[in-house]
Design brief:
- It is built from ten helices and no strands.
- The protein is mainly α.
- The protein has one domain.
- Helix 8 packs across helix 10.
- The longest helix has 27 residues.
Length: 273
């Protein structure tokens, strides 16, 4: 509900709700695009799979997109037939979608096959580290498996021309650094930016009351100039954050489709007239 004594803009909220409904409606079709991507034989993504045999890059990328899609689909299911915009829990789903989409984009963005393969190998190694940490927490020693995985990944890396000076065992970038790296390579995106949306959804999901006050006191939606002051919830805020997540997801799926159709000459086959 709006804060006492503050009048919300009905037109802005109506705009936000209509946008929210539109976005939720297109998510299932976007998920189907993820499932339908098939790397062409002899293409660069198929070649990348051969260079990352421990965890093929196309499988890795599709998994991250499936993670993003699952968060978005769960969000749309939770919001179905409701008259109330999301509060705190729903923002954790939008944040998860942003993270999955960004990870898939980060894996695909380097301009050369070798650099993309290196990112893929490093991501597999970081996931193995996470698995080993989890195993240790529940009383299982996974150090031998971890060492074996590193040896396999380094062997994969050593077969790739131009990576002699690089190591798979490399510090993992922060989530913020990954988002900044991805965001600066993208064309114009809707507001808020991916980084702003990720920070906002993270803070709201974790119950950061200061960010909540700032979010709902200065909430705006693209195409409208009015501002809202809401204590806990707003269609304008919910739709703006979802719009950025959907845009990031769409950009990541589009890049996956592009890489899957890419030939060794790095030129995508022309689209049919």
């Amino acid at each position: 509900m709006p804060e006492s004594g503050v009048r919300a803009s009905p037109s802005l909220e109506a705009h936000g709700r209509a946008e929210h409904i539109r976005l939720c409606a297109i998510i299932p079709a976007m998920h189907k695009r993820v499932l339908s991507v098939t790397p062409i034989e002899g293409g660069t993504l198929k070649r990348a799979d051969g260079l990352t045999s421990t965890m093929p890059m196309s499988h890795q990328t599709r998994f991250q997109l499936q993670v993003a899609a699952n968060h978005l689909l769960t969000y749309t299911d939770a919001m179905k037939d409701t008259d109330t915009p999301t509060r705190y829990a729903g923002h954790s789903l939008v944040r998860g979608a942003l993270e999955g989409a960004v990870t898939a984009l980060w894996l695909q963005q380097p301009g050369t096959l070798a650099r993309r393969a290196l990112r893929s190998l490093r991501w597999t190694w970081w996931e193995q580290n996470d698995a080993a940490d989890f195993a240790a927490e529940v009383g299982t020693d996974a150090s031998d498996e971890k060492a074996s995985m590193l040896a396999l990944l380094e062997a994969d890396k050593n077969r790739i021309k131009g990576l002699n000076q690089d190591s798979v065992d490399h510090p993992r970038p922060t989530r913020t650094a990954m988002i900044i790296d991805v965001q600066r390579r993208l064309p114009a995106m809707p507001q808020p930016t991916i980084l702003a949306a990720w920070r906002q959804t993270s803070s709201l999901a974790h119950g950061n009351s200061a960010v909540a006050r700032m979010s709902f006191n200065l909430a705006s939606i693209e195409g409208a100039s009015e501002h809202l002051r809401y204590a806990t919830t707003s269609w304008a805020v919910s739709s703006a954050l979802l719009r950025t997540a959907v845009a990031a997801f769409d950009a990541s799926v589009s890049k996956f489709e592009e890489r899957a159709a890419e030939t060794p000459s790095h030129r995508r086959p022309p689209s049919p007239a």
